[in-house]
Amino acid sequence: MNISETRIAKFIRHPYDLLLLLLLGIPLFFTGVRDIHGWGDDYAQYIKEGQNIAAGEAYYRSGYIFNPHNPEYAPPSYPPGFPLLLAPVIKFSGLSIRPMLYLISFMLMIFLLCSYYFYQRHMSRVSAFCLALIGTYCGAVMDLKPHVLADIPLLTFTSLYFLLRIEKPSSGRILLLSLTALMSILIRTQGALLLAAELLLLITTTIRQLKKREFHGKVFLKNPSLIIVASTLISHQLVSLTVFRAPHQPYSFYGNLFSLYDHNAWAMLAYNLNYLVDLLRTLLHYVPEDFFWQALVTIIEYVSFGFAFAGFLFSLRRMPELETYFFLLMCLLIFVLPVHQGARYLLPVLPVYLLYFFRGAKIVMPVLTTNVRSATLLFTILFLMLGYSHVQAFKEPLASHPYNRQDSLAFRYIRENVKDDEIIVFAKPRALNLYTGKRSVNLAWQKTPAQNKQFFDSLEVTYLLKRNALEDEYITQYLAGTAVPSDTIIINDEYVMYRVK
Question: Phi and psi at residue 499, in whole multiples of 5°?
Fold first, then answer.
């Protein structure tokens, strides 16, 4: 009996596992689901690209102008995978945020199921069940839950990839793996690390065969890793050159990022190493409403990190796994990237991190207790109870968002009084473009006012827009270091627009 048949047999014997998982996933559709979105900017670019796809237009076209002097801010366009998922929702619901957050909830439900069946390969049903719940409801995931961002969809597709990947996949499964890898890359460029992990697996497998004198050319050409990598890369090129052709590919954005290493690279790498450890440790963080419980949360974070580190070392001693290579590559990416976006960039390693946590706990727990199953259940219940307090904050009104009356009035004024060929400098240019349709660029806070002015003059910028409490100090500094604006328009109590051309 092969692995697929064994898994089907298990499913038939335990059909209630799926039902129980679905029931415990229902809160996902009520947690962090709102009608509005907080101030930010990434979500606006995803929605704009989804809007374009829904309208049958080139997905990358928007009024957002990339500022090359501020490469850590945002690329000219995002990969089309997540906008493609958003497009049907936008087609039927417009710019309504709630349906988009339901899509995020659905993706997280799929992650819950994928992680459970993935963990079943490595542990008992009870442990797999507990680990899947911990991963789905941990703080790193819940904090991203109320946002229309690509991070949870990428987590879902990488976990699906881990579930589908077995040692000797059939041709049909290889096709599914290639499509899953392609979608991961289209959602976020980080998804390409799945292919890099496959290449490392291929290289180590080939070296081992060469040492044993078991290498054969025909067998090498039929290696699943080689086929997956080749077919995914070819598919990605075809898609990028036809359906989702864009003048700026996201890979060039990473090249701009590394220009930030011009000064003090060693200090940045040292910082990144500590930053990486903190990110791994806080994957299981919570911020309980009652500060009394924060000490317990901190203990859980450090103990979990210790177990995960022990499990990682144990995994290195075994025959290399795809998940281990992926984990190492993701950690390397965080170590070398000169930008810091919190747990978002590291989120795809969560299923692997929890697997290491289980392996480390399996080594230590028998020393502490003979009833490992009860200890596992108690830990999971305690963890989720602390998490319940954490997510209660989602019920609080958002402190800052672009859905106030003053914002709506300002956006309407801009739509009616700013010409389509005029450019506005604003702290959140992509959000401004989404809500007004006008061209916008942001200010490079790394540069002097004179350097910014030179760039803005080359674009023939017309206005600077300032909103209270929204990074407006940069515009204040810019105005203080350059010429006095020719006109000042007080739109309302929150918005002031300065004409500079």
Answer: -90, 125
